[in-house]
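Researcher: Please translate sequence to structure tokens.
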Amino acid sequence: MVRPTRVTNRIRALRFAADEMTQADLADLVGVTRQTIIAIEQGRYSPSLEVAFRIAHALRVPLAEVFTYPQEES
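Model: Translation complete:
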């Protein structure tokens, strides 16, 4: 069983803010499949650092606006 990633994202909201960009449009801009974008959006897959930067670039926002990782509690 695949464990969901702890990395969260705002890809869906940012796609809609970017003139309702489709998952296919984003996938084409990033150079991945639509299924990859779906898996990342749903938190089933954490992208590589390079893909994460490409997504942020395609959405025209800083990386930290797209992805967040919870702080460890001390």
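Researcher: Any highlights?
Model: The chain is about 50% helix and 5% strand.
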